[in-house]
Structure formats: structure tokens, C-alpha cells
Design brief:
mainly alpha; 78% helix
């Protein structure tokens, strides 16, 4: 059995190294492993596993949240939010950068994906940041790190995957990310203000007039209602995650078409097409990862890992440190959904054996994935912001983006450590939700 596990892992690594798309590499390595166990029946097993996965009702929320994000992007709702925060904060030290972080945080409460937020924020914030004397590297880092908040602040697509696999309440998983998300916003804002005050190129910023602020408020308030409509029904138990995603899609369309009028009727088909393409990519990744995870489960690797740690007397703290370190390393080469679907079958038996709070561990796992999003060489947010910056005419390079992002990576690790030592930051709000 050990040789089969080793074969599957080596095959996966080789496929990734030669550039095979991640879902194909995961699915093929898993299929080979299943063939070694079940022979020709492996294809049937793999097909059934994939069908059961995409046929799960909770997974319907994924394409709905992706559609919601597409609508928000096409409707330029992020720009309205940014302008609202900018006119109220631009006169304070680091205010324009803080406005960018707050915009990313609010967008995170609508969309649930990090790369889309990073690209969206970069498209309208980078030029403004540079205009007010923020260094190029800091401007890049702000948008990269702010975008990563998308999978921590609810709604979060990785949390949907975690809930589907562990059978934990997705609503509680969503709410668990609220306080750590707020902590991240506060730490990022402090760092941005400190860096701005140290900058020799900082400029004196004239405060916006109250008439400008009133105009921005009248436009931005409609966008602010969307995250309220996501979090409040979840916390009060008025709606399920999938129902909230559907309502979010409807509300976003109504705002874009009738209030902001940034979406035309002719735009609906292209929006749907883009959302379908992005949803198919995500679901393809999930299917490949779930096949690999199923093979790992049948190998008994999860039980073996659990037996190794629990039976040999390793403390829960040691287990957490080792597994988080592995996920941080994996984040340098794989995207979040793959990491989660690979690791959960392996780790879940040990988590249960330690009687660990699965909601708390979910937050640790998601923050680990956030670090991966801004870690070279495969941090997706790095490439997204680099591409946007080049499209805006800036002399961006991947090295420049990494240089601006690494301090935020350190802050993410600090947040991970704080939540690790203070589990109440993750579990307090879910424990007070309406059942």
C-alpha cells in the first residue's frame, strides 16, 4: 500500500513539474491510484465521485457567487465603493491605501474569490495610489494582499468546499472568518499608514468637500447593502448559503442595471458566458482534486497519518504547526481549492482523533491558503496584479510585485499565529449564531 501512495504522489509531482494543468494532474494521478486498487472499475468510481460532487446542492452556491462577482466587476460596483472610501479617508496618513484595503474587504463580502478582487482593485486603485505618492511596490502589495481577503471574509469558496467535505455548517464557517478578516484589515491599515509616513514621495492630500462625500455616499450606499444582505441572513439563520448567493445575484443585477446603469441588457449574455467559463474552471479543479482525494482515502493515508500523530503522543499544537507548514509550502505551487481537497482527506481523521474544533481549523487552513495566493512562484494574486499593472502602462515585473507583497505575507503569517493561539477569534461569532 505504501508503494501505491508513493507512486500516486510521485506521478502528481512529475505532472505538475512538466506543466500539466492542475486539475488534469490531480485527476490523472488519482485515477492511476484507483486503478491500482480497483482495476477497470476505477473509471466508474472516478465518474461517480465527480458526479456526486458537482451534484451536491451546496456546490450550486459556487457558480452563483462567481456570477455575482462577474456582475459586480462588469457593473463597476467596486469603483463606486472605492470612491466612497477614498473621499472620506484620503486626507489621513495612508488614507488612499486604507481605502483600497477597505474596498477589497467589502468586495470580499460579496464575491468570495481572491484573484478576481485583486484584479478588480488593481484596475481602479493603482493609478490613484501612485497619484498620491505611494511607492510603486507598496501600491502593488496593497492590491495583492487586499485581494487575498476574498477567501477569508464571507462568502468564501474554500469554506464551501470545507463544509461540503467535513459536513460542518457552511454558514458557521463563513461567519468564522469575520473577526480574523477584520483583524487583517486593521493590521494592513496600520502598516500602510506607517509605510506612507516613511515615504519621501508622500504628498499633501486635500480633503474632499462634503458635497463630494454626499455624492459618493449616495452612490456607494447601494453597493454597501450587498454584503449586509449576505452576512445578516447567514448570522440570523434566515437563509442558506445557496439562497443568499441567488439573492446576491439578483440584487447585483438590479443595482447594475437600474441604479448605476453600468450594465445594459445586451451585457447579460456575455456576463453569463464569462461566469459559466469561470465556474467550469473551478468545478474542473474540484473534480480533479476530489478524485485524487478519494484515492488517498482508499489508500488509508488519512488513518495512517492520524495513527502516527495521535498514537505517538504528538500534541495538537505540533500537529497544527506541521500541517500548516505543509500547506504554506503547497501554496507556493498549487491554488487553494486543490490544497484543500488534497489535504482534507488526509487530515480529517487526525482532526477528529484530536477532537479539534473543525471551524477553527478551517480558518487556519484558509489563512494558510491566503499566504499561498501571494507566495511565489505560483501565487495567483501576484500574476493577476502584475498583468493589470502592465495593462495600465506601469513598468511592472513579477519581482516588483513580490517585493511589494512580502511584508503583507508576513502579516498574514502573524494573523495565522494569532488565530492559532486565540481560537475564540474564529469560533466566538459562530457559537452565537441563531440555530
Amino acid at each position: 500500500m505504501t508503494s501505491l501512495i508513493l507512486l500516486a504522489v510521485i506521478l502528481l509531482i512529475v505532472l505538475l513539474l512538466i506543466g500539466t494543468p492542475v486539475p488534469v494532474a490531480l485527476g490523472f494521478a488519482g485515477l492511476i491510484g484507483l486503478c491500482a486498487l480497483s482495476g477497470e472499475g476505477a473509471i466508474v468510481v472516478a465518474a461517480k465521485v465527480m458526479f456526486d460532487t458537482v451534484n451536491d446542492f451546496i456546490f450550486l452556491a459556487i457558480p452563483l457567487f462567481i456570477l455575482m462577482g462577474t456582475i459586480l466587476g462588469r457593473g463597476k460596483i467596486g469603483e463606486k465603493l472605492y470612491y466612497l472610501f477614498d473621499v472620506f479617508l484620503r486626507q489621513i496618513p495612508g488614507g488612499v491605501g486604507i481605502a483600497t484595503i477597505l474596498t477589497c474587504a467589502v468586495l470580499a463580502a460579496m464575491i468570495g474569490t481572491s484573484v478576481a478582487i485583486a484584479a478588480m482593485a488593481g484596475s481602479f486603485a493603482l493609478s490613484n495610489l501612485m497619484k498620491y505618492g505611494y511607492s510603486f511596490h507598496l501600491s502593488l502589495g496593497i492590491t495583492v494582499a487586499g485581494g487575498a481577503l476574498g477567501i477569508l471574509i464571507p462568502p468564501s469558496l474554500p469554506m464551501i468546499l470545507y463544509g461540503a467535505f467535513t459536513q460542518e455548517s457552511t454558514g458557521r464557517l463563513f461567519i468564522a472568518g469575520v473577526i480574523p478578516g477584520i483583524l487583517a484589515v486593521i493590521l494592513f491599515s496600520i502598516y500602510v499608514a506607517w509605510e506612507y509616513l516613511r515615504s519621501p514621495d508622500k504628498q499633501k492630500v486635500v480633503a474632499a468637500t462634503w458635497s463630494e462625500r454626499w455624492v459618493a455616499f449616495k452612490e456607494g450606499i447601494w453597493a454597501l447593502i450587498i454584503p449586509i444582505g449576505v452576512i445578516v441572513p447567514l448570522y440570523t439563520g434566515l437563509a442558506t448559503v445557496t439562497e443568499i448567493a441567488a439573492l446576491g445575484v439578483l440584487w447585483s443585477f438590479l443595482i447594475g442595471i437600474f441604479i448605476y446603469r453600468t450594465i445594459k441588457i445586451k451585457d447579460i449574455i456575455p456576463i453569463l458566458r464569462e461566469a459559466i467559463n469561470n465556474s467550469a474552471i473551478v468545478m474542473f479543479i474540484i473534480c480533479g482534486a476530489i478524485v485524487f482525494g478519494n484515492a488517498v482515502t482508499q489508500f488509508g493515508l488519512g488513518k495512517a497519518i492520524s495513527g502516527f500523530f495521535v498514537s505517538n503522543g504528538f500534541s495538537p499544537g505540533v500537529f497544527i504547526v506541521i500541517t500548516v507548514a505543509i500547506m504554506l509550502i503547497m501554496g507556493c505551487f498549487l491554488e487553494g481549492a486543490s490544497i484543500m481537497m488534497i489535504m482534507l482527506p488526509i487530515l480529517l481523521p487526525a482532526l477528529i482523533g484530536y477532537n479539534m474544533d473543525l471551524i477553527w481549523y478551517a480558518v487556519l487552513m484558509v489563512i494558510s491558503i491566503e499566504v499561498g495566493l501571494i507566495s511565489p512562484p505560483v501565487g495567483l494574486n501576484l500574476y493577476a496584479v502584475d498583468s493589470v499593472a502592465k495593462g495600465l502602462g506601469f513598468p511592472s515585473t513579477l519581482g516588483a510585485v513580490i517585493r511589494g507583497s512580502w511584508p503583507f505575507m508576513v502579516l498574514y503569517v502573524l494573523i495565522l499565529t494569532i488565530v492559532g493561539f486565540l481560537p475564540s477569534l474564529a469560533v466566538w461569532l459562530p457559537s452565537h449564531m441563531v440555530k
